[in-house]
Amino acid sequence: MNSILIDAAIDDDRRRELLFQGQLLVYAPTPSSLALVRFAREMAEEALRPFEPETAQYHLPVERYAAILAEMKPKFIHHPRSKECLQGIFRELGCDMNKTYFDVPRMRTSTSDDYLKTGIAYAFHPHRDTWYSAPMCQINWWMPIYPIVSENAMAFHLRYWSRGLRNGSAGYNYAEWNRTSRQNAAQFLKEDTRKQPRPEEPVELDPQIRVIAPPGGILLFSAAHLHSSVPNNSGRTRFSIDFRTVNIDDVAAQRGAPNVDSESTGTCMHDYLRGTDLAHVPEELYPLYEHQPTMVQAPELQTASSD
Ligand SMILES: [Fe+2]
Question: Is-above-0.70 flag for pTM?
Fold first, then answer.
């Protein structure tokens, strides 16, 4: 059973528990999420001037567009202001800053009408982030930069929360990916040949749920949820921000969502930075995450999570 909880008045421990059971949580914009959205808009508007970011794709050759994004996105990701805004969001939503570790925020673009959906503006096929070596305790945070509609949102494919899907995650190793593929995103304009974990059987996309929050509204979900970019036919490019967190108590206790089908190796544990001082997760914990935990069968899972 999946629910969407809106502005739930619960503490962070309870929130993570619910997320690990597959619930989706949505929060109204906070002062810091709005500051982050403002900052992202400034950057996008500056980079794409004289065009409006949401419709610039109709005025630029795709090579030029990809080159502009390839220059702008890393600046946003690594700017100190982006990190400060994230820290503000965590404080405003009651996270323990000493225990919350976060990855830098990404700015994503989903262009309309198949203009560009590879490389720097990759249109994500159905996947779980845990297929890409994210730990089962990872929580994903996602927010739109401009207003979105159902036709340019993100979809969750709920039937796979408790059901495994044959997939290529066993062939994915995070360290290997970083060595070979990450740097090259902007060069893939027509076809993305980088080897990514994909479903290896037909996916039943429905029932699916799309959460439409306002700009700066925050959607939280477990990294184990199967989700995808909706084929965008809205006539506008969707700009969004996402980032990830882990809580160090969960990391140490190996708590998290149940693993139904992730077999990736390598770990992104060294990417997370502590909320207070940007320190890394202690290295002695990394070996716990070189492999995904033992997979659970759906019936077992259903008994375990029924309440
Ligand atoms: Fe994802």
Answer: yes
